[in-house]
Amino acid sequence: MRTKRYFSPETKLEVVRRYAAGDGPGVLAREYGIRGTLVHQWVTAYKEGGERGLRGPGRPSREAVAAALLPSSVEESATHSLQAAQRRIALLEQKIAQQGLEIDFFKLALRHFETSPPPAERPGATAPTPSSGRTRNRKAD
User: I want to staple 39 with a disulfide (CB 3.0 to 4.6 A). Which of 17, 25, 48, 101 is the partner?
Assistant: First the structure.
């Protein structure tokens, strides 16, 4: 059974730099006693996360924690909050515009209803009867 070997970030960085300088993954794999795919993994990790990408799992260093608390992360969270606020404002503006359209529609419908003659005065309509419960005048002026 093989035991898992650990490589320091400095060793990984050295392999990545030599790979970037032109040494092939096979040559580096033989020299360091690792698989060629591991060389590619380290190169990919370096491209994605820089030297921090080459750190192994575990507790972050004090420097990493301090860097995470620097103003850049505060600015990122402020930027995120600003974007969220802008999205919320846009949604509220859309809602206000929709409500304005609905109010205009109902004002027009009410104006149409108020200016239309009562049912008894329309051609072909019947007048209200006392048993129908309808009154002759809709509005009490």
Answer: 25
Number of domains forming the structure of the chain: 2
Classify residue 16 as exposed, middle or buried by CB count within 10 Å of its CB (0-12, 13-18, 19+): buried
Q: How far apart are CA 66 and CA 73, in angstroms?
A: 11
Q: Domain check: are 88 and 59 in the same one? A: no
Q: What angle do CA 98, 102, 106 make, to 5 degrees?
A: 170
Domain that holds residue 92: 82-114
| pTM, full prediction | 0.42
**DSSP per residue, the chain:** -PPPP---HHHHHHHHHHHHHT--HHHHHHHHT--HHHHHHHHHHHHHHGGGGGS-SSSPPHHHHHHHTSHHHHHHHHHHHHHHHHHHHHHHHHHHHHHHHHHHHHHHHHHHHHHSPPGGGSTTPPPP-GGG---S-SS--
